[in-house]
Design a protein that fits this description.
With 382 residues, the chain is an alpha+beta fold. It contains 13 helices and ten strands. It has helices at 5-15, 20-29, 34-42, 61-73, 83-94, 97-109, 186-189, 229-235, 237-265, 277-305, 311-335, 347-355, 364-374, and strands spanning 114-118, 134-138, 141-152, 159-165, 179-185, 194-199, 207-218, 222-223, 267-268, 271-272.
């Protein structure tokens, strides 16, 4: 199995130019890490999954996993750019040849940014089929009205994949019908029917609220068939979950290394704190959890790369990895005592950042529900 060591070494090397001071500064100012994202783009790391025919490296998902894991493991935050890896999959799998030729090479070269993906709405939450953002056909345009919430990186992207309802739910045979995916050119949309309002969150994630007031989107920007959008979005979720799970493994490994290093060095009562089993056992426990989660993440990625659709493995990987990262974060802060709370150690920042992954892009309960109904044949609760 290819572990992509050369890619890992390259990413680690790039990340060494963006140390803790860099991340602390952008976090404190809630700034987008533009220089970091540009460096990743320039080195081709955000286009590894784009096929060679469209200017990318055409590598399998495992390569993307290696990149995201290394960024987190170095102390950075791939949340600023990870979406480009999986959002382009919607365009690649369901876009027309003309759309792919128009956009993918420009995305691969870094000229166009496809970082935003808009599904969540204030009133529907996880119940995606109840979204209210409507797109009504008018000549050769769709007219879009509605609201989205927690849409990340919309202010730092040129394009956005947008899920809308094109046929009212009550007129559809199934609730999953009647949704469509539009590719919105944010450079034209902002100020012409789209307003973006930042939401300040506990970590630096550039997330926003979007207000659509009769935004006109050309019909040529419809991805795939009208009414099939729900399936296109679902289709990309395995890749998204496996990639995010890899980020969590990177976080967990960063926390564990940091905790172990500190426990070896810090002396209290005349000996290293790590000599106390009360300090070393929780670190060992977090390590064991992380290695177990990493094995499932690897398995899910391998299944995906072999052409399977590993829904259960992708969900299990995301749950186990996000919990392992959170456990490791907690142990790391405990091991550092008071210093874990001091900004200059980066632990409190990473602690805030890694907490997100038990909620977004999918919350733990929804993963449990998937496994209960798909793997254990238990009745659906919704
Ligand atoms: C920082 C951040 C960035 C985000 N970025 C994006 C983005 O770029 N694009 C995008 O589209 N969305 C984004 N999201 C939204 C994210 O995907 C949602 O917050 C997440 O899916 C949960 O939806 P919700 O917040 O509406 O919670 P709700 O659906 O309201 O759920 C609230 C809680 O109830 C639980 N729950 C709900 N229904 C059930 C049930 N039937 N059984 C058991 N438990 C249930 C959930 O698990 C959750 O814990 C982001 C969110 C955050 C916080």
């Amino acid at each position: 199995m290819d572990t992509y060591q050369d890619i890992r070494d390259g990413v680690a090397n790039l990340c060494s130019e963006f140390p803790g001071e860099y991340w602390r500064k952008v976090d404190a100012l809630r700034q987008y890490p533009t220089a970091f994202v540009q460096a990743l783009n320039e080195n081709g790391y955000l286009s590894v999954l784009i096929p060679e025919a469209y200017g990318g490296s055409g590598l399998p998902l495992s390569a993307g996993c290696a990149i995201l894991e290394e960024i987190q493991r170095s102390g950075g935050n791939a949340g600023a750019c990870h979406a480009q890896m999986y959002i382009m999959g919607t365009l690649l799998r369901h876009g027309s040849e003309a759309q792919k030729e128009q956009y993918l090479p420009a995305i691969a070269s870094g000229k166009l940014r496809l970082q935003a993906f808009a599904v969540t709405e204030p009133d529907s939450g996880t119940d995606t089929t109840r979204i209210k953002t409507r797109a009504v056909r008018d000549g050769n345009c769709y007219v879009v009205s509605g609201k989205k919430v927690f849409i990340s990186r919309a202010e730092h992207s040129d394009l956005m994949v947008l899920l809308v309802r094109t046929t009212p739910r009550e007129e559809c045979e199934k609730r999953t019908h009647g949704l469509s995916v539009l590719l919105v050119d944010l450079r034209e949309a902002v100020g012409n029917g789209l307003t973006i309002k930042p939401i300040r969150t506990m970590m630096n994630h550039s997330t926003t609220e979007l207000f659509f007031d009769e935004l006109r989107v050309p019909v040529a920007n419809l991805i795939g068939e009208e009414g099939r959008g729900f399936y296109y979005i679902i289709d990309g979720m395995n890749a998204e979950r496996i990639l995010i799970a890899s980020e969590c493994i990177g976080d967990a490994r960063w926390f564990i290394a940091k905790a172990a290093d500190y426990a070896r060095d810090r002396e209290v009562f005349g000996r290293p704190i790590g000599q106390n089993q009360g300090v070393q056992f929780p670190i060992a426990h977090a390590f064991i959890q992380t290695e177990a989660a990493a094995a499932i993440v690897e398995r899910a990625a391998q299944l995906f790369d072999s052409g399977k659709s590993p829904g259960s493995e992708a969900n299990m990987a995301k749950l186990l990895a996000s919990e392992a990262a959170w456990e490791a974060a907690n142990v790391c802060i405990q091991t550092h005592g008071g210093y874990g709370f001091a900004e200059e150690y980066d632990i409190e920042r990473k602690f805030r950042e890694t907490r997100l992954y038990q909620v977004a892009p999918i919350s733990t309960n929804l993963i449990l529900s998937y496994v209960a109904t798909h793997d254990l044949n238990l009745p659906r609760s919704f």
